[in-house]
Structures are given as C-alpha cells and as structure tokens.
Amino acid sequence: MSLLIVLLVAMAAGLTGIALGWFLRFIISLGKKGSMELEIKEMLLTAREEAERITSEAEREAQETLKQLRQDAREFEDKVEKTEERLIAKEAYLDRRQLDIDHEADEIREKRDTLEAREAEVETLHETHLAKLEAITQMSREVAKAELLKAVEEDCAEDIIVRTKKLEATGKERLEERARDILATSIQRLATSVAADMFATSVAIPSDDVKGKIIGKEGRNIKTFERLTGVEVLIDDTPGSITLSSFDPVRRHIAATALEALIADGRIQPAKIEELVEKAKKDTNRLIKEKGEQAVFEVGIFNLDPRIVAILGRLHFRTSYGQNVLRHSIEMAHLAGMLAEELGADVKVAKAGALLHDIGKAVDHEIAGSHVEIGRRILQKFGADEAVVKAMQAHHEEYPYETIESIIVQVADAISGGRPGARRDAAEHYLKRLGDLEAIAQRFSGVAKAYALQAGREIRVFVEPEQVSDIEAQRLARDIAVAVEAELKYPGEIKVTVIRENRITEFAR
Q1: Angle at 298 between CA 317 and CA 356, to 5 degrees
Q2: 359-384 pLDDT, tens digit each
Q3: Cβ distance 334 to 178 under 8 Å?
Q4: Which whole-number Å values give the CA distances from 333 to 38, 318, 327, 423, in the listed order?
Q5: Per-residue pLDDT, 257
Q6: Is there a contact between 444 and 480 (Cβ–Cβ < 8 Å)?
Q7: 322 contacts 338 by C-beta, under 8 angstroms
Q8: φ, ψ at 322 (rounded to 5°)
Q9: Residues in CB range of 392: below 8 A, 6 or more apart
Q10: pLDDT tens, 56-108?
Q11: Which of 359, 267, 247, 342 is nearest to 304 (CA)?
C-alpha cells in the first residue's frame, strides 16, 4: 500500500515538474519575443537615419555636380562664341584678300596684254630695220654675221692665242699643285713600316745538347729535315739558337714550325720529323687562309670569292725586292682608297684593284706568264668584278688605263714601292737567281725536289730511286752543272749534289 502511495506521489511530482517546466519555457519565450521586437525597431530606426543621411549627402553632391556642369557649360559656350568670332573675322579677311587678288590679277592681265602688244610692235620694227639694213648693204643676215665674226676673229686672233696659252699654263700649274697636295696628303695619312724581309730564321733551343739530337747519328736527322723542308740548317757555336736559311719564306716558316715542335717533343728521329713536317705544312696552309681573311677585313672588302682570298693569303710568304707583298698590297689598298676619295672615284673598286694587283705572284712560280696576266686569269676565273680587273691589270702598263681607278692603283704602287728602304733591288735579283737555279734542276727527268742552299752556292737535288740509278745520278749531276754554267751568271762556283735514297718498308705481323 505504501509503495503505491509512493508511486502516485512520484507520478504527481513528475507531472507537476513537467507542467512547471512548460510554464517557465512559455514565460521565457514571451520575454525573448519582446526583446527581438525591440531590436528590430532599433534596427529600423537606425536604417531610416542612415537612409536620410545618405540621401542628404547624395543631394548635396548632386547639387555640386550640377553646379560644376553648369560652370563647364558656360565656359564651353564662351569658347564657342570666341571661336565663332575668330572665324567670322577670318572669313571677312579672306573675302577682302580675295577682292585684292582679283584686282591684282586684272592688273596683271592688262599689263601682259600691253607687253605682248609692245613685243609684237618691237618685233615688227626689228624685222623692218633688218630688211632696210639688208637693202642698204645688199647682204643677207647670215652673210653679214659671218663677215662680222671673221673680222673680229682676225682682229683678236693673237690675243686669243696668248690668252689660251696663259690659261693652259696656269691650269697645268694648278693641276700639278693639286696633284702634289693629294699625293702628299695620302702619303702622310698612311704611316707603315718599310722594313724588308730577311732570308734566315733563328729557332731558340733550351740547351746546346739539342744540337746533337738534331744532327743525329751520322747526320741522319739533319739530312732528313733538310730534304723534307728544303732549307739549310746552320748549326754553329752560337749558344741557344739554330739558324734556318732559305730564300723561300714558306719553306722557312714550315721548317721553323716543325723544328720547334720537334724540340718540344724531344723525340728527334726521321719518322717523327716526317710527321711534324707534314703537320707544319697543314698549319701553314691554315695560316695562309687566315692571313687572306685578315687582309680583306683590314681594307674593308667583303665581296670576294673565298678562293681568291685563299690565294691572296699566300702573298704573306712572298716578297718583292725584299718587301712583303701582302703588306705592300694592304698598304696600296689604303693609299688607293684615299686617292679615290680625293678624286671622286669608286673607293671600293680602287681598294680591291690595289689589294689584288699582285695576286699573280702567289702562283707565278707554278704557272707560266707574267704575274699581271696570271692575276687577270685568276680574277676572271673566280668571278671578280670586271671593274676590279681593269683597275689591277694596268699597274705595270701592260694594259692601257681604261678607268681612273686603274691610274690610282698604278700611282699607289709607285708610292708604296718608292718609300726609302721599302725595297731592295739586289735582293730581288738574288731571289730570281735562286729560283732560276732550282728551275734548271727540276726540269730534268727523274728529279723529285731541288733546293738552292747556302745563298745559291749549292743546289741539292733529290731524285726518284725507281727512275734514276746510281750511275745515272752521277750523269745527272754533271748535266745539271753544265746547264747552270750555260744559263746562269754568278760569282764563284755552285756545288751540285744529287741525292738518291732507297727506302724499303716491311711489316712484321
């Protein structure tokens, strides 16, 4: 019974708690609803105030903008009014000017008509006057004119001759003075070295022990070196150097390059000598190409065929009367350019003609003919400009002067070669004699190479062992000596040495 009472009491308490909780929740919700309405009213009030503020600011800004627009419109209207006033004034001025022009045109037409009438009247009077003169003199106008000129010519003939001679003399003096000024200016503007080339090259060695290695056992190394390079190796008591002597600068350069490489390598023996001499020849060919390219770049000529440039580079190792031909040609190109500029000629053609004027000398020892004719054929073969060919071909007067550039090239050649110390006439004759000496030996059958040594006092001839026997070699030496005696003039005697060498190679495998 008591448990039931407890349960009922508990249930009554729970229901009472539920009812109380619901009532409290209802009271709280009513309070929250009232506070939210207050917040909404406050927000609405704030929004109205903000809207009123924004509206007032917009109205104020609109009034300011409208005021500024009205002011701008007034200024624009003032400008338009002023422009209209200027245009009206200008139009009035143009109208007045047009009236003045029309009036002046009328006056000019009246004057022209008057002048034409007077001109016709003068012409009529002139014809009438001439007709009366012809009737009086009984001579036509042409006959009278001829008679008058004849009389004047007879009276003034002597004066005309004297005046003409005076003008010729004065003009010649002025032209000669101008020519001297041009030449002097060109020479002064170009200052170059005039040192002539030498015929010997010294190669430095680290110690005198190297001299013995270069000579080799029984002279094998030095003989091989001289045979392959064609130079004379002079080994004397001079410390620290070996001298290479040859009239051919290409041979000297190849020999010096090969000898320096041998000394640096240290393995001096015939096989190594052959290898380094071949390498030196290739390096020299590359140097020749570079020298040609440097020459055309220095004088500013860039439209030449590469084959012409390569042949031009060979002149670096060619001398004329002791003067380096490539440096001489470059100097001539600069001089020709200055002269052409002074005289109003074609500067590029004059420079190219001067630079290439001696190109035939690069191969004149291989091709028959004068260096001028050889040079013409080279330039024509490789498509050089005909104006350049005409400019270079007349520098020795083998061809006529067809253009002013050809005269300029000849003058530049005379200036360059005429500098004191620039050339050695004796050296040129010496080189020619050595070249003739080698040419005599090389024309015999079986001769492979021939080198003139010791300033032309000896010629060494290398023969093909398959074509020339030992007995024939002796006869060949005598035949060459007889030919030299018959064809050359020289002091003292020339030693002829014929060398026949057999080389047999086998391989062990």
Answers
A1: 55
A2: 888 776 667 777 888 888 888 888 88
A3: no
A4: 109, 17, 10, 18
A5: 87
A6: yes
A7: no
A8: 80, -5
A9: 353, 354, 356, 357, 359, 372, 375, 376, 379, 406, 409
A10: 888 888 888 888 888 888 888 888 888 888 888 888 888 888 888 888 888 89
A11: 359
Rounded mean pLDDT of 124-135? 77
pLDDT band of 305, cuts 50, 70, 90: confident
Return all residues near 354 (Cβ < 8 A) that are at least 6 apart. 329, 332, 333, 335, 336, 337, 391, 392, 408, 409, 412, 413
Residue 459 DSSP label: E
Q: Does position 420 have pLDDT exceeding 60, yes or no?
A: no
Block residue for tokens 């200036």:
415
Q: Is pLDDT of 191 > 60?
A: no
Strands 232-234 and 323-324: unpaired
Return the pLDDT at 161.
67
Residues 387 and 349: beta-carbon distance below 8 Å? yes
Query: What's the rounded Cα separation, in Å, for the pair 90 and 381?
Result: 76
**pLDDT on residue 425:** 45
Report how far residue 219's alpha carbon sits from residue 501's, in angstroms, rounded to the nearest whole number: 14
| Angle value at C-alpha 327, between 252 and 302, nearest 5 degrees | 115
Q: Residue with structure tokens 């000019």?
A: 108
